């Protein structure tokens, strides 16, 4: 079976993240793309040898034979595009965060469940070898019962003071809370294997950005946030995501992860250059955490020379995320993380937005 896919979105992200794995999948054909403007949409289609391009989403859905769609657009388009696709029985991979609000995410998830379509949320860092190894070590009991986690995502793109839809509340729903925070909310849920009970957050908008291209004003979103979460298991996590951190690395970002438990602790670090490592310390050890080499089977044949090449290979050459979703459509199987997880994450994001507006007032889920 050849799985026929349409793609909404023709940005650099679609070009980098979705078309390469779709083009590499042996049983996938990208048959149409849809963008906001004719010239970029046409150029994108020509670049990837896609037979049809559109600027009208309805026209693409009505005139092209499709099995599924990828929604790689700004957040304000996720809800309407997903519902339109699901109404036609199409499978959907939708960029994170799933929506701008819990209400939108609920509608999308309910429609997908009723239609029985296969959905996917691309929480990319779930699939990276460092985090896969940390998850395996936790599940194997390395740290005993998890007590608390500290996960940080530092990057510097927020210092750019030009207008960006990512910091426009009407279009994005939230700023760094949804853009980067969604990754960490999902990662902590997955690593700690528990659901949230209380969320508190404090955020800031440190950089004043320019007006929209049309000159109109808008409500700006945060570029830095700290979320504190209590889980049903009793564990808690502190999640910090910031777009205003100088990292001094070629890719302009770093990831830091610590998980402490009753029997030990794990420390993971990725500098988005050449370092991606996991260290561990056990109860009673008399020396600092030592490197625990990531096994070859976790690397799964991807390059290890730079983190960027690891990232490329994970999503382009292994059957994860986009490729796994296509394979699931072909095989009639399920795949994760799906819209249910996207909705669960959205509940935390909305609570963080509400809490940060109240200067950290706890929100009970």
CATH topology of the largest domain: Dihydrodipicolinate Reductase, domain 2
In the predicted model, the low-confidence regions spanning at least 5 consecutive residues are none
| The level-1 CATH class of the largest domain | Alpha Beta
Task: Specify the CATH homologous superfamily of the largest domain.
Answer: Dihydrodipicolinate Reductase, domain 2
Summarize the structure.
This protein is an alpha/beta fold.
Could you characterize what this model shows?
This protein has 365 residues and is α/β, with parallel strands linked by helices. It folds into 2 domains: 3-124 and 319-338, NAD(P)-binding Rossmann-like Domain (Rossmann fold); 126-312 and 346-357, Dihydrodipicolinate Reductase, domain 2, CATH 3.30.360.10. It has helices spanning 12-24, 38-47, 57-63, 78-87, 102-115, 129-139, 169-172, 176-179, 181-192, 296-299, 307-317, 321-331, 339-357; strands at residues 3-8, 28-34, 52-54, 68-71, 91-94, 119-120, 146-155, 196-204, 224-231, 236-242, 253-261, 264-270, 276-282, 290-291, 363-364. A 9-stranded mixed beta sheet has the order 14-13-12-11-7-10-9-8-15. It has a 6-stranded parallel beta sheet with strand order 3-2-1-4-5-6, with helices on both faces. Strand 4 (68-71), helix 4 (78-87) and strand 5 (91-94) form a beta-alpha-beta unit. The longest helix has 19 residues, at 339-357. The N and C termini lie far apart (43 Å). The mean pLDDT is 97.
